[in-house]
Amino acid sequence: MIEIFTDGASRGNPGPGGYGVVLKSGNHRKELSEGFRMTTNNRMELMAVIVGLEAIKSQTHEIRVYSDSKYVVDAINLKWLEKWEKNNYQKIKNPDLWKRLLAILTQYPVKFIWIKGHNGHLENELCDQLAVRAATQNVLSIDENFEKNR
User: Fold this and answer.
1) How far apart are CA 132 and CA 33, in angstroms?
2) Angle, CA 143 vertex, CA 140 and CA 145 arms, to 5°
3) CA gap 53, 103 in Å, rounded
4) Where are the domains of the chain?
5) pLDDT tens for residues 14-62?
6) Catalytic residue numbers?
7) CA–CA separation, 112 vs 78, rounded Å?
8) Region of residue 95 (phi > 0: left; psi between -120 and 50: alpha; otherwise: beta)
9) Whether the predicted model's global pTM rises above the 0.90 cut
10) Nearest alpha carbon to residue 128 among 146, 116, 140
11) I need a surface site. Which of 14, 34, 109, 146 has the fewest CB within 10 A?
């Protein structure tokens, strides 16, 4: 089984932001993070999940994504994303990221699990630290779709 723990953070909404990801599989562990100069918290929550899933090299494992974002988890578990796709992503925010996530989810089954944020969960706390640290670096990436469509 592969476990992916994710979190996003932003300083202002919009403002500088970042994501943090911890991937675990058996004794293997990998941490990922990146910061952006102008974005939103929801975009960073989505980016964390996307980057975590894109980092998986094998499609033969059971995958569980743990997120403190009800926005992300409910969109999958309550099938909002399926409705948004049928409606061609009209009137929803972040369609570029939802489309990117949906493309990944068609490759293999993923179970999404909501965990309460800032509640002492070791991996969630680490993801938050990674995201905040990434958002406060001197050199930040450009969230091109966000900045172009503001």
Assistant:
1) 9
2) 165
3) 11
4) 2-148
5) 999 999 999 999 999 999 999 999 999 999 999 999 999 999 987 778 8
6) 7-8, 45, 68, 118, 128
7) 11
8) alpha
9) yes
10) 116
11) 109
Asked whether 118 and 21 are in contact (CB, 8 A), the reply is no
DSSP secondary structure letters along the chain: -EEEEEEEEESSSSEEEEEEEEEEETTEEEEEEEEEEEE-HHHHHHHHHHHHHHT---SSS-EEEEES-HHHHHHHHT-HHHHHHHTTTTT-S-HHHHHHHHHHHTTS-EEEEE--TTSS-HHHHHHHHHHHHHHTSSS-B--HHHHHT-
Q: How big is the chain by its Cα radius of gyration, in Å?
A: 15
Tokens of 88: 């061609």
52 and 37 Cβ atoms separated by less than 8 Å: no
What pLDDT, in 10s, does the model give residues 52-96? 999 998 777 889 999 999 999 999 999 999 999 999 999 999 999
Cα–Cα distance for residue pair 60/31, rounded to 1 Å:
21
Q: How far apart are CA 99 and CA 94, in angstroms?
A: 9
